[in-house]
């Protein structure tokens, strides 16, 4: 077996309390199977996620990062996810401009009732990241 | 149509003409103080100074090609706690003025009672290059050479690709573009405040708009020439710095002194996240980090610092180049910040410092935008 076959992606997800985190709970209580590669961090709102957390995660060993929030228009705090959307777009644009792998930065809007969708998403991101291989920043000591 | 008037310059003495104009602003009590670059009495250095006695303006040198401290920081220092109660003229370069506008939006400066006087900017040299230049040459020589379209490759990198070498939000512009090919200067009032200044000085505003038209087309030409230069620059820079390997090599010499952050006119937080105890770790945690990757670069989080600064300040970056100038390791920060800043500013159709009305992108949003983010 090669090293790539052994590769288990590590994904750090910042999930909002009201929607995506609740969807994760629902997926769990509904006993839906999904890969254990996502390490969730519950935050009160996707709008509280400063890009510094995403960059730090990528530099500290994450192969992909995810911000999960409420559907646009459904934010518990009215507009947090719209602001999150701008920040993620900005971060992706910066990564693109610098020739870094912006496709390791994910965003998904999943409501509290979408347990199935949450499980599907974790499978999707895990598989995509597996294809991409280990994050180039994740194991670089010199950055 | 802007209101303009030609200010005749005798014997090519541009500096003297401007200084007399500034002096009259004070002595005729049109303003009660002037913030302007003044030649330091001890040598060839230029220092921003707040002047209330007109005689000190004899040593002003607004076109001296050097940018020691971005005036926006000084305007912020003066007005952050309370606005000026006396009318104060502030003479600035276009990038400095754009930074002031950003700081007002960030609630770090107040414009009440300030008269913003912007100069057309022929660019500046690095501090070291200016010291050499100043030994033999004057700002008058510099402006004259610039007016003859002489390509000056010694200018700071940022000045060579400046997007807006003309003031965007000035009350009054001191123009060297389009004031015909003689040495004359142009005064252009862009606001009511500016008009009042010209009236107070007894300068008659031309009515047929001929000068203003001439300037407009000259400015347009200039901007399109700069845009062409920028395009080439971005292409080149993208290749030079692009990719993790290149970035890693470029930032390898970073000593994490935070100079770039300290001098940046728009990096405004009173307490920076990167100076916070977040990054003070116990020995065992450092050892843990080292164990995880086999080694860990110290001080830690160098690339994190720069990438984060880009996400925080990218949309407000005015391209003044102070970061690059302050870097003891000669990291091409301006190049990188301009490349990144241009892209994120374009993403939101935002021009930093263009207007007080444009909302700062990170605090605003539209419901129907960026729909590709979060799409399945």
Concise summary:
The complex is a heterodimer of chains A (143) and B (376). Chain A is an alpha/beta fold and 143 residues long. Chain A has five helices and four strands, in the order H-E-H-E-H-E-H-E-H.
Could you describe the 3D structure shown?
The complex is a heterodimer of chains A (143) and B (376). Chain A is α/β, with parallel strands linked by helices. Chain A has helices at residues 3-6, 20-29, 51-59, 80-97, 115-132; strands at residues 11-16, 38-43, 64-69, 105-109. Chain A has a four-stranded parallel sheet, with helices on both faces. In chain A, helix 2 (20-29) links the parallel strand 1 and strand 2. The radius of gyration of chain A is 15 Å and the shape is globular. The termini of chain A are far apart. The relative contact order of chain A is 0.24. A seven-stranded mixed sheet of chain B has the order 1-7-6-5-4-2-3, sandwiched between helices. In chain B, helix 2 runs parallel beside helix 3 and helix 8 packs across helix 14. The longest helix of chain B has 32 residues, at 210-241. Chain B is α/β, with parallel strands linked by helices. Chain B folds into two domains: 3-232, no CATH class; 247-363, no CATH class. The chains are: A alpha/beta (143), B alpha/beta (376). The A-B interface holds A 50-52, 55-56, 59, 61, 69, 72-73, 79, 82-83, 85-94, 96-100, 107-109, 121, 136-137, 139-143 and B 238, 241-244, 246-248, 251-252, 273, 292-297, 301-304, 307-308, 310-311, 314-315, 336, 339-340, 343-344, 347-348, 361-367, 369-370, 373-374, 376.
Helices and strands, with pairings:
The complex is a heterodimer of chains A (143) and B (376).
Chain A: H1 3-6, E1 11-16, H2 20-29, E2 38-43, H3 51-59, E3 64-69, H4 80-97, E4 105-109, H5 115-132
Parallel strand pairs in A: 1-2, 1-3, 3-4
Helix pairs in contact in A: 2-5
Chain B: E1 3-7, H1 14-27, E2 33-39, E3 46-51, H2 71-79, E4 88-92, H3 94-105, E5 114-119, H4 127-136, H5 139-147, H6 157-160, E6 172-175, E7 185-189, H7 192-200, H8 210-241, H9 244-251, H10 259-263, H11 283-293, H12 302-313, H13 322-326, H14 333-347
């Amino acid at each position: 077996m090669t090293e790539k076959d052994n590769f288990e992606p590590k994904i750090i997800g910042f999930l909002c309390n009201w929607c995506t985190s609740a969807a994760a709970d629902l997926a769990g209580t509904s006993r839906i199977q999904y890969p254990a590669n996502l390490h969730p961090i519950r935050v009160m709102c996707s709008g509280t996620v400063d890009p510094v957390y995403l960059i730090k995660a990528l530099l500290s060993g994450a192969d992909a990062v995810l911000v999960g929030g409420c559907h646009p228009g459904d934010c518990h705090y009215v507009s947090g996810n719209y602001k999150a959307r701008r920040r993620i777009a900005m971060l992706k644009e910066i990564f693109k401009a610098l020739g870094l792998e912006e496709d390791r930065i994910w965003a998904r809007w999943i409501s509290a009732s979408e347990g199935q969708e949450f499980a599907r998403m974790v499978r999707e991101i895990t598989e995509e990241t597996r294809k991409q291989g280990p994050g180039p920043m994740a194991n670089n000591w010199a950055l | 149509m802007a209101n303009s008037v030609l200010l005749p310059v005798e014997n090519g003495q541009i500096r003297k003409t401007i200084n007399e104009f500034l002096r009259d602003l004070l002595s005729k009590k049109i303003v009660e103080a002037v913030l302007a670059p003044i030649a330091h009495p001890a040598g060839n250095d230029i220092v921003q100074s707040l002047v209330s006695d007109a005689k000190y303006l004899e040593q002003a040198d607004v076109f001296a090609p050097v940018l020691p401290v971005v005036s926006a920081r000084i305007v912020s220092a003066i007005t952050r706690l309370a606005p000026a109660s006396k009318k104060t003229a502030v003479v600035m370069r276009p990038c400095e003025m754009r930074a002031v506008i950003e700081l007002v939006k960030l609630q770090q400066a107040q414009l009440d009672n300030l008269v913003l006087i912007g100069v057309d900017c022929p660019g500046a040299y690095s501090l070291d290059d200016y010291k050499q230049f100043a030994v033999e040459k004057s700002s008058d020589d510099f402006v004259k050479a610039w007016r003859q379209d002489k390509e000056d490759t010694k200018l700071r990198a940022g000045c060579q690709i400046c997007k807006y070498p003309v003031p965007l939000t000035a009350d009054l512009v001191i123009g060297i573009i389009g004031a015909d090919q003689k040495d004359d200067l142009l005064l252009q009032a862009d606001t009511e405040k500016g008009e009042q200044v010209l009236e107070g000085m007894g300068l008659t505003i031309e009515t047929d708009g001929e000068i203003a038209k001439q300037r407009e087309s000259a400015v347009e030409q200039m901007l399109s020439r700069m845009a062409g230069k920028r395009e080439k620059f971005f292409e080149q820079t993208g290749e030079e710095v692009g990719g993790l390997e290149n970035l890693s090599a470029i930032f390898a010499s970073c000593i994490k002194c935070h100079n770039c952050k300290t001098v940046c006119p728009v990096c405004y937080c009173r307490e920076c996240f990167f100076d916070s105890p977040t990054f003070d770790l116990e020995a065992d945690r450092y050892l843990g980090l080292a164990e995880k990757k086999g080694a860990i670069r110290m001080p830690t989080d160098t690339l994190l610092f720069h990438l984060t600064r880009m996400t925080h300040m990218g949309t407000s970056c005015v391209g003044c180049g102070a970061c690059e100038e302050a870097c003891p390791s000669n990291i091409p920060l301006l190049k990188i910040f301009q490349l990144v800043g241009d892209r994120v500013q374009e993403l939101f159709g935002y021009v930093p410092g263009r207007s007080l009305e444009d909302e700062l992108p990170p605090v605003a949003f539209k419901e129907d935008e960026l729909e590709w983010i979060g799409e399945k």
